[in-house]
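Researcher: I'd like a structural prediction for the single chain below. Treat it as a standalone chain; there are no partners to consider.
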Amino acid sequence: MSKSRLSRREFVGALGGTVAAFTVVPRHAVAGTTANPPSDRLNIAGIGAGGMGGGDIGAVAGGNNIVALCDVNANTLKDATTPRTKQSKDGKTEEVPAKYPKAKLYADFRKMFDEMEKDIDAVTIGIPDHTHAVVAMAAIKRGKHVYCEKPLAHSVHEVRELMKAAKEKNVVTQLGNQGHSSETIRMFCEWIWDGAIGNVQRIELGCAAVNSGVDRLEQVRKERPEVPSHLNWDLWLGPALDRPYHPAYCPGAWRGWTPFGNGTVGDWVCHVVDPVFWALDLGAPKSIQAEVKDWDYKTQGDAFPKGDKITYEFAAKGQRGPITMVWHSGTVKVPRPKELEPDRKHYETGAVVYGDKGVIVYGSHGAGGVRIIPETAMKAYKLPEKKIPRVPGHHGDWLQAIRQGKKAGSDFALYGGPLTEIAMLGVIAIKLHGAKLEWDAEKVQFTNSSEANALINPPYRKGWAL
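Model: Treating it as a single chain, here is the predicted structure.
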């Protein structure tokens, strides 16, 4: 059992490969008319045109129209809309056509919506975490279908507001936790429901990635580099409070900084917790408590720690009993299960699910090597029949849901939002590490900490709001 080496971008591509085979209902039909046939292409705007955002756009482009691209990085927009040359194997120069030559280009999503609202059916959002909610909300309020990369938002308040808006506007939404549409997450659920390991009592899971800016704290406090000419820093900041530009934040490293990202817990919970969240109907925890070493929020709070451990307690629900789930980030590793044979590798990113009759392990995205351990127990287990409907990839599931007027598997209101809230509660617990926080999900408040309640809805920069 070797740890997965599949990158997130490769994983998105693999799941999105069947999207082009599906058609979708045009915006006029969705609005209640039948003037156009169902074979009409969907007009999609991509907000965030590089990295994961670019991957999302590519995954939905087949059979649809990419009518607009929005990015605060002018170079990214240029790369997506300009032909380029490359060297062939025989040494000749070949011209590669532009990916989206007809797309209109914008730096500001608000201007894009103002000018093209009637021309856009749906949007993909692949931008830093702190801007997810303001962009997704702007799209939802205009009745656009939304695919948004995980985590859905940057705070518990934003999660709840997006859930409410998506439900009220009845748009088709999909959180970008790609493993939710995989075959293996369905296998895991079917095994758990079949009683493969009995009653689940404890889950140890996490990700070994280190998303932390701690080592560069002094650097960003002292240095004042110039903003690159191709970057609109004001728009990149969005709702985050004002601060000077520094390359330690972007591109790419923003996840390690609390004003912009959500650390490793925010980056990976929606992937790694997804299988147990679905199979066990976890819902909201009743308490959260984090353990962090060599890090203090008051003096180092701009940057996430290099490692943390978060214990979530879930009350008994339905036919299952109470469950303890322990998350491990970065330098704090998921403990190796004693049931795993000595010659088999332990996942650095994944989960160990303990039941009263056995143990199941799985890897990243709920899609890496779902197995009962030890292997003798796996071989002795009779696989149950497949009961959960399979879908045509994660992006395909979203497009198909639009076409059929149904909900996608990781709908914001029904699934993606509550799953993201697990991560946002974890972020609060990290900032107040050591304190056991009692959570009342119905009232959206902590019952024993005013300090924690103050972190549910952090302030926005002037001029920005949901």
